[in-house]
Amino acid sequence: MPTHPQAHDAPGQPVLGRSARPSSREAQVPAGASVAIVKAHLLDAEAIRRALTRIAHEILEHHRGSARLLLVGIRTRGAHLAERLARLIGQFEGHTPPVGALDITLYRDDLSTAAAHPIVRQTELPAAIDGQAIVLVDDVLFTGRTIRAAMDALMDFGRPQQIELAVLIDRGHRELPIRADYVGKNVPTATPETVTVRLIESEGVDEVVLEECTTP
After folding, report:
1. How far apart are CA 119 and CA 57, in angstroms?
2. Is residue 83 part of a domain?
3. φ/ψ of residue 21, rounded to 5
């Protein structure tokens, strides 16, 4: 997926974090630059683990096992979460479902307004997806446009029997009629706020924080 830390529905990202007390680094922030202020810590490492464990159990209960499952994570953090869910399912069921990683860069409906040279990463699907029960995995569900792009991308590879959606955070503000089947945590947010997910695999820490960008 694109590299925005909260999801891929809203372009742009904060340039710096800021604590309650100004630091010497903040004094160097250029005039007019946006600064991200942490408003709340939503999930720590243990809470993320519990949320993914619950989602894994819910997937297994709904599908009565993992024999027909294919987990597909939206790059980048969604792919990491899909790998974690597959490992958990394997621990509970004794069979680890295959995992794929999906890049949706060229399917975004805002591609024309994105960077002049967007970074396209590789899509990796372990097998033909025709007739498969796919659980699409992402970190944050926001407007729904990322998920629509992901479904468009999947359909270019085949015709799955069904597609479900699992997300770590649902922050609301949908612009398309898309909902998640499995949710780690629902978080009411204001539109200017950002839900930032950081994972060990990509940022070296597991946490979810609510931030707001301001101009000092």
Report:
1. 35
2. yes
3. -105, 125
Terminal C-alpha separation, the chain: 31
CA gap 213, 58 in Å, rounded: 35
Query: pTM for this structure?
Result: 0.80
Pair 150, 104: CB distance under 8 Å = yes
Answer whether residue 214 is part of any domain.
Answer: no
Q: How many domains does the chain have?
A: 1
Per-residue pLDDT, averaged over 86-94, amounts to 96
Asked if 126 contacts 98 with a C-beta cutoff of 8 angstroms, the reply is yes
The CATH number of residue 133's host domain is: 3.40.50.2020
Rounded-to-integer distance, Cα 209 and Cα 125, Å? 31
- Confirm whether 162 is domain-assigned: yes
- 3 state SS of 111: helix
pLDDT in tens, 174-205: 999 999 999 999 999 999 999 999 999 999 99
β-bridge pairing 162-170 and 133-141:
parallel
Residue 16 inside a domain? The answer is no
